[in-house]
Amino acid sequence: MPLDRKDLLDLDDFSSDEIMLLLETTSAMAEILSRPIRRVPTLRGKTIVNMFYEASTRTRSSFELAAKNLSADLVNVSASQSSVDKGESLIDTMRTLQALGADMIVMRHWEAGAPYLAASWLDAAIINAGDGWHAHPSQALLDLFTVQERIGTIAGLKIVIAGDILHSRVARSNLWGFGKLGAQVVLCGPPTLLPRGLAEIAETESRITISYDLDEAIVDADVVMMLRLQRERMASGLLPSTREYCARFGLSRERMRRARPHALIMHPGPMNQGVEITPELAYSEQAVIEEQVTNGVAVRMAIFYLLASTPERLA
Amino acid sequence: MKNNWLIKGARVLDPANNFDAVRDLFIKSGTIADIGEEFSHDNVPVIDAHGLVLAPGFVDLHCHLREPGFEYKETIATGTRAAVRGGFTTVCSMANTDPVVDTPATVEFILEQARAAAAARVYPLAAVTQGFGGTQLVEMAMLAEAGAVAFSDDGMPVADARIMRHALEYSLLVDKPIVNHCEDPALAQGGVMNEGLTSLRLGLRGMPAEAEETMVARDALLARRTGAHIHIAHVSTQGGVEIIRGAKQAGIRITAEVTPHHLTLSDALVAGRRQAGAGSSLAYDTHAKVKPPLRTQADIDALIEGLNDGTLDAIATDHAPHSTTDKLCEYSEAESGISCLETAFSQVHQLVQDGRVPLQTLVSKLTTEPARVFGLPRGTLAVGAAADITLLDLEAAWDVDPEKFASKGKNTPIAGWTLPGRVAMTFVDGKLVHTADGYEQRGAQ
Questions:
Q1: Which stretches of chain A score pLDDT less than 50?
Q2: What is the distance of C-alpha A180 from the center of its chain?
Q3: Which residue in A89, A117, A197 is closest to B196 by CB distance?
Q4: ipTM associated with this complex
Q5: Annotation says B318 is catalytic
Q6: Which fold does the domain B64-374 belong to in CATH?
Q7: Cβ-based burial of B17 (10 A; exposed 0-12, middle 13-18, buried ≥19)
Q8: Closest to B330 (Cβ–Cβ): which among A90, A135, A196?
Q9: What's the rounded mean pLDDT across residues B304-310?
Q10: pTM
Q11: How far, in Å, CA of B268 to CA of A250, rounded?
């Protein structure tokens, strides 16, 4: 079954079948990564551009390695080197990359929706590598894959996502991803970091609940995903101090005991150790944080592969 | 004789005089000379208006003509051409030009340009504070003498409550309204759409309803204190309607307007939801970006209720033309505003078709009511009044095609939509200034 889509912008309009297809393809890619020689010729002659308007180390490297494992040619462009500084419009920049021969463009942008604008003006595939607070679909897919690999299923699991939900594209994409595959998702954080509108979603979607109390939310959880807390949240009046945040929302051993015995600890990175998570937990056996990073390469290979072989592009 | 017409067989609808019947209307030398039955006058061109509604020309309290300073977005000539195509014979131009309208010379410039090139009547607003700086009051008396009909800092609302208090007090000198775009800058900070379910889904920074509501409440209290007239521009929230309703009941001199888009479109449009049959588009349509932002269905319902019960006095377009490049960019970077003069009537006529607003109410909110709010001698079909007239075909439907707009601003989120009710002809001072395609044969027989 092919994936009949031009772009990967978010998971919110994906069917569970489409998500499963991506996860199955990721398994096949993970198998390639386990070989002594990890390179296959699948995308030889294809050009992929990493267009990053916002700094990133792990996501950009992950897409880059994924492209190289599939033998595609990859060009890295970052905003500081591009014509953005000269006042060129986003559409113009992106169309130029397409004119240079890009078949697919991996795009990170600080503004929500920027990849949608690009997608509507380009024939090249646009892969959203994070747009503002909105979406980070490849991260959600690698999270789903990691849980599926470890636990064997996603349906029926209790997933707690804790921390700064308001500013998190990871939380938003995971909300749709885990929800569509039948998990119960608890979004937990201080009231100032839970966006307005969440209560409305929770009212209509029985699989989604909201909590201000991590001790209560974490009970019998199968997965605990901690989000990074930016220091600027204190200065902007959303939180009084990291001390109080840690006391209520930091993940500690005592808190983790309330979850299921083999519950997974996840973090999209980069971590603030000592704030949202203690170092001992981050490197504990329950933590799958490095596995998430490893799986990220396989997931991005699957994304490239499926978008390159849509019915339209094979025709 | 110039500007003589006999308009025959129209349903004459004049809320100012509580009149609604099929009649003939005789225009002599640009004024309404007589309204009666089965007129005939020799040597006077006749317009067959059977099946059409004849209403006073619409009065818009809030539109952006962009001249001087932003002529690439709109000029007084193109903006007033758009106005008459939309049935508006009187438009009040906002003060956020470059330079802002804070000197009598700029008021005079606008009036001079209007005399030279405008298709509709233009009444300028002036700023409240010099350069929209929010600190020093403008010369209200001299500006009023030059022709300013009201005072507003538009999208830069007077944030300092003390300055607003003094502006209201000082306005008693000229007895003209202070118009405020109510949006608390701290609460709205960085917001690019309504805060709620859709902003959560799209990951865009939201502007809470309270940014509007708290400032409406503040202004109502300051108007009570001073006895001055506060006019609330483009109310968009349920809470705003409730506060204004309460303030009116308390006898405060407060009036308010609402736009066609806030009455008919919700923030779901930003997520790419479209009218059935008009196709769908991707999310983050910058054409749906406007200030105040499109709100929720509950807000729409409250606005319609407020329109019907008199809480909201007028429908004003907030016509905000922008160039293509102003909108062809990332959502957060895009300019706010909708080019609205040419679609306004049909958008709100949808509410009549849906049985939510009576036609008489709708026409009064476009004519006599706005004229009353700013004290303009317009919006009436009284014998002896200037013949500012709009002929409406309520049975016709049409497709919105921005490329056909007279406005330079093609920025509308409802391109391709089919709207009910058409402006067929428009007269200003008895001069036929607009005839829609397909209505030519009704004229000059």
A1: none
A2: 15
A3: A197
A4: 0.91
A5: yes
A6: TIM Barrel (3.20.20)
A7: middle
A8: A90
A9: 98
A10: 0.94
A11: 36
